[in-house]
Amino acid sequence: MALWDNYAAETRLEVTNIDTGTTTVDSFGDTTCYGAVWRFAIDNGPGTNMRVGIIHAVWNTVSASTPVMIPEVSSDDIGDTSGVSFAVDKSATTVRLRMTVTSDDWYFYSLRTKIGAS
User: Fold this and answer.
1) pLDDT single digits (tens) 71-101
2) Architecture of the domain delimited by 3-115
3) Which of 14, 67, 75, 79 could tie 49 with a disulfide, CB 3.0–4.6 Å?
4) pTM for this one?
């Protein structure tokens, strides 16, 4: 079976009570796929501060290259989510989606699709 025969694997993610600073909200081995798409929702109290969006990233599985993250595509905010940002990086052979927040009690919900999953 070729790598692209099983081209996608989807996982549900939920991380709650994210406080000020940077938190890894997802991680996996860099050779399990060539790229990933996270469809996400964040909130700081339902109906208060909310956003939904998509994050795309791709990386080279044979080198220590830094993942390329396409800027997040997101909805308009409900309330204020300006203190929330995302980054994709690699730590050794682990791809990480990192969420940085400037206040406490954020929630992250996502469906992550691995592209080119083996």
Assistant:
1) 889 989 999 999 999 999 998 889 999 999 9
2) Sandwich (2.60)
3) 79
4) 0.89
